[in-house]
Amino acid sequence: MRILLTNDDGIHARGLQTLKTELSKLGGEVWVVAPDREQSATSHSLTLSQPLRVNELEDKVFSVQGTPTDCVMIAIRYLLKQNPDIILSGINHGPNLGDDVSYSGTVAAAIEGTMLGILSMAISLADWNPADFVVAAEVAAKLCKIVLQRGLPEDTYFNVNVPYVDRGNLCGVEITRLGKRIYRDAVVKKTDGRGNSFFWIGGKEPSWEGGKKTDFKAIEANKISITPLHLDMTNYRAIDSLSGWDFSTLQEF
Length: 253
What we know:
The chain is α/β, with parallel strands linked by helices. It has one domain (about 1-180, about 210-250): Survival protein SurE-like phosphatase/nucleotidase (Stationary-phase Survival Protein Sure Homolog, Chain: A, 3-Layer(aba) Sandwich). It has helices spanning about 15-25, 70-80, 100-105, 105-115, 135-150, 215-220, 235-240; strands spanning about 1-5, 30-35, 55-60, 60-65, 85-95, 120-125, 155-160, 175, 180, 185-190, 195-205, 205-210, 225-230.
């Protein structure tokens, strides 16, 4: 068994290190190829305008001067001589719920792995300032064994969020859909010492909404949320409704 780990919080992140320790108990090879620094909110971006530097920190542990997607690409196309059986991205510092998945570098690594035909999961601990990641790592390792045994539907990857509670306070597992994130982002303009303008994108802590069976509702109920996500983002219901539109003017020149 060969497992590839990556993340978007960087090679030295506690979530990644705790996950590596737990997965090593399963036996087999555990490879780590992760960014050399934090790459949160990089989404599914590739570095194309500059060279990528890779450093081997120890046996089967590499840092990459790039995004999580870069890490997966370099690991599969160059560093590993054989494809891993599964890719785990995380454990992320903070939740990846609802629309967060569009921004998340953690989720993007799972997307890239799925595109390359490899079983992939993104794992997040749903707390902004966790003290430890042990319970989430144990959950990830157990889920890893299940996915390796059963596989995943075609072009599908898991986005997993684990509530930040003690083992005894976990209230089960729920297969969920994405909720809706409520953004409170703000753009703040400032001036540096030379009089040049710069901007910070930030704002208040986000919240989420949605009905039953959403990922954020599961977390609120102290349940492990497993959301199956699909590479194909086509809105198939819209195809039928759009078939009645008149697009003839598009070809009038």
